[in-house]
Amino acid sequence: MQVPSAQATAAASLLALEEVSCRFGGLLALDRVSLQVQPGEIFGLIGPNGAGKTTLFNLISGVGRPTAGSIRWSDGAINGLPPDRINRLGIGRTFQNLRLFQRLSCLENVLIGLHHSARAPLLPALLGRRSFRQSQGELRQRALELLELVDLADTARQPAGSLPYGSQRRLEIARALATAPRLLLLDEPAAGMNPIEKEELSALIRRLRSRFDLTVLVIEHHVPLMMSLCDRLAVLNFGRRIALGTPESVRHDPAVIEAYLGVSS
Amino acid sequence: MSDLSLLVQMGFGALLALSVYLPLRCGQLSLATPGFYVIGGYVAALLSTRWPALSGDGAGYPLTSLALELVVAAPVAAAVALVLGRPVLQLRGIYLAIATIALVEILRVLNLNLAWSGGAVGIFGIPQPFAGPGGYALATWVLLALVCWLCARLEAMRLGRAMAAIRDDELAARCMGIPSADVKLTAFVISAVIAALTGVLAAHFLNTWNARQGGFDASITTLAFVVFGGSRIWLGPVLGGLVITALPELLRPVGDLRLILFGLVILLGPILFPQGLITPERLARLQQTLRRP
Ligand SMILES: Nc1ncnc2c1ncn2[C@@H]1O[C@H](COP(=O)(O)OP(=O)(O)OP(=O)(O)O)[C@@H](O)[C@H]1O
Ligand SMILES: [Mg+2]
């Protein structure tokens, strides 16, 4: 896959944030953040705790509304649209605090992600006709394939809430993938994983990108992992974008070093 | 009460329980069921007493007229549910419960004071399509079987999965592309139709209909059916509705203690089985043990 250049124009970008701000009472969680994500890239978002990373995801996915600025997707503004509409436009996400349907099985979790692929004519469905059963069988097959992709085929029947932490994170990815997104937002997908699992996850994200033609926006605290995984990175601190560029340029950015090490230069 | 009459009442209980269950299955604590039951009852009472053409010329009230009442009551209830559902379902949890109780109460006061509903005395002499309780029992249980079948089918479809997802985590469901407002409204409308159809049968069965039908007590009783039986699979509310309706009659031999025993069962059920008697997991385990030789 070809890596887009950092200077790619806004016109060609898949997602463009322009001066996006988000205020919670007296707290300015995001302060005029602008960035563009190009089709096909893995774009990283790093920054200290409370920097506003999750808030940014919430605004993109429609969970929250920006107090100022605009979010453009392909070529239309999407700020203010409800989350289900935004998902239908091709933006899928996972949650930092894991929001699986705990009591439902892994398979059912993915089937819910397949909601819009599961549309079936009403009458055959009500009558339980063969055509309906067949389409349901195919749907299950697709769900199983997605589970296999994240290495969870063996636990398909278990309740999502009973899985270990790392597996729940991967199940969140499978469920989001089921909604057939073009852009996948991953909020700390490696949190709670050991170093080996982290490496595997990084490989998985790359595999998924090429297999589904995905663009990926990922938040993660583990900086070395992000340096090797991402094509480009943005760094947030206190709601402001303090750096943007290739891993190499971000690594040597004085503002980033200061934010992370807390030293003033 | 005759055994057959008890069967009719049990059927009504199970039907109303399913009506409360559907919104609850997507996490909506709506107590509007008695209101739609009342609407169904008035549709039946008004049509059968004020429209002579329906009465036919034979001895009994024609079954086709009863069928026509059902066919009229369903869209009337659905329309009311559609109009009320959009704004009301934006409320959550206990606020939704209180708002729906208020709606039922408004309806009761209206029926008490409007001329066409017969005011405080109500509507008398609703004609009888069946000669005795046997016919009512048959009609009620056929309707119950149909509604059970509908619920079982819905649960196998994507609508059923979407409902379970909304109940578990509405925000996550919406982020997976599920239009939760539409799903909740669909459940509310089907729930209203079930209650209204039950009301049609009940009006004929009781022979009279008035503003005392389906008040606040009914809201709580029907909710108890679902809490007792379980709200995650259709079998739960059916069992809850049947058992709790029958219990006071079955306990009659116990004499004066029966109401205390009845209260104890309602109290102990949720304590021993917090998710209700029937859960999908318990059913799956039961199926497995049955399958094993
Ligand atoms: N709904 C909300 N209401 C009020 N304050 C909020 C809300 N959501 C986030 N905040 C605040 O906004 C700031 C940014 O939070 P956010 O969750 O975006 O940080 P983050 O960069 O994801 O941090 P972390 O790395 O800890 O996940 C924090 O100070 C947080 O307390
Ligand atoms: Mg966060």
Q: Explain this structure to me?
A:
The complex is a heterodimer of chains A (265) and B (293). With 265 residues, chain A is α/β, with parallel strands linked by helices. Chain A contains 10 helices and 10 strands. Chain A has helices spanning 53-60, 83-88, 106-113, 122-127, 130-149, 165-178, 195-212, 223-229, 247-251, 254-261, and strands spanning 15-24, 27-37, 42-46, 68-73, 76-77, 91-93, 183-187, 215-219, 232-237, 240-245. Chain A has a 6-stranded mixed β-sheet with strand order 6-7-8-3-9-10, with helices on both faces. In chain A, strands 2-1-4-5 form a 4-stranded antiparallel β-sheet, covered by helices on one side. In chain A, a hairpin with a 2-residue loop joins strand 1 (15-24) and strand 2. In chain A, helix 3 crosses helix 5, helix 3 (106-113) packs parallel to helix 6 and helix 5 (130-149) packs across helix 6 (165-178). The longest helix of chain A has 20 residues, at 130-149. Mean pLDDT of chain A is 92; it is low at 1-8. Chain B is mainly α and 293 residues long. Chain B has one domain (3-214). Chain B is 73% helix and 0% strand. Chain B is built from 12 helices and no strands. Chain B has helices at 3-25, 33-50, 63-88, 93-113, 133-156, 158-168, 170-175, 180-206, 216-229, 235-250, 258-272, 280-291. The longest helix of chain B has 27 residues, at 180-206. Chain B starts with a helix and ends with a helix. The mean pLDDT of chain B is 92. Chains A and B meet through helix 2, helix 3 and helix 6 of A and helix 5, helix 6 and helix 7 of B. Bound molecules: adenosine-5'-triphosphate and magnesium ion. Magnesium ion binds next to helix 1 of chain A.
